[in-house]
Amino acid sequence: MKHKIFSVTDSNFEEIALEVFQFQYKNNPVYKKFVDYLGKHNPTSCSEIPFLPISFFKTHEIRCFQKEIEILFKSSGTGGNRSTHFIESLDLYEQSFEPTYRHQLGNPEDQVIIALLPNYVEQGESSLVYMVNKLIKLTNNTLSGFYLNDLEKINETYQSALSLGKKVIVFGVSYALLDLAEQQINLSQATIIETGGMKGRRKELTKEELHTELQKGLNVGYIASEYGMSELLSQAYSDKNGVFTTPPWMKILIRDVNDALSFEEEGKSGGINVIDLANLYSCSFIATQDLGKISGSTFQLMGRFDNADIRGCNLLIE
User: What is the CATH number that goes with domain 93-227?
Assistant: First the structure.
């Protein structure tokens, strides 16, 4: 099954997704209850597969195995309770994030990676920190690392990396990147990747407002983004146009905001449903709290739902 997931193509994605669905329906007790409640245990297409509300990761053990877990990943917990992702195999996670990164951003061996993710490091059990730490090790360069609040040293590292002919990648949570931008540090030759919101540290901004502030303060032409979360094992990255590209084993569907079981056509905005086949041992079919729209094989983020619960998906399992 793992080999099928990471060799999936557009032509056989649906076939493999349905196979993964059947595996998870049989082996994930929580997901099975959810599917049985909806009466959709034999879907024939991706759009017929039930998508589990992401909030279930805060209240239930979403997993397809009983053996001891290899690691726990938890969300940042901005809204209160932290979601928990039970990981059966870190190898599966690495098989997902490393080739995606190489395809979208290049080889870590040619780069210096600066991580500005203080809140994730402080809270611990972060899938993002695990991923970035692994990428840092792959650079095999002592300049790469986590810099927390040492903003002045970032400029020194940036200049040193350029003198070595290295490409500089900066992973940063939004509020920490704004702190950096306020220092007016010129990172014009770096690729800046923002990884998400303010985590309660600053006033929330739209993507457009955030990127405008960062471009101005860091003197860069555009800001890239990473779309990932603790509940997923795959990521999408955006380019200078704010358009996200997914790896072959990840697919985005857009649901009707008022009817969670219906889907919008291309170009119309709605709730983001994610199929992440790398989530083989938890749940690959997740209804997120994000809003977006798709265009072909790419998608754009439009914001988040105002309410904590996903409308039409507030099914609770005792």
Answer: 3.40.50
Angstrom distance (rounded) from CA 278 to CA 249? 7
278-279-284 Cα angle (round to 5) = 110
Report pTM: 0.92
Domain boundaries, the chain: 2-82+251-304, 93-227
Residue 264's CB is within 10 A of a number of other CB atoms, namely: 16
Residue pLDDT, tens place only, 218-256: 999 999 999 999 999 999 999 888 899 999 999 999 999
DSSP string, 164-179: TT-EEEEEE-HHHHHH
Which residue intervals of the chain are DSSP H helices? 2-6, 13-27, 29-38, 56-59, 90-105, 118-123, 127-139, 151-163, 174-181, 207-218
Cα–Cα dist 246/260, whole Å: 22
pLDDT tens, 26-82? Answer: 999 999 999 999 999 999 999 999 999 999 999 999 999 887 889 999 988 766 688
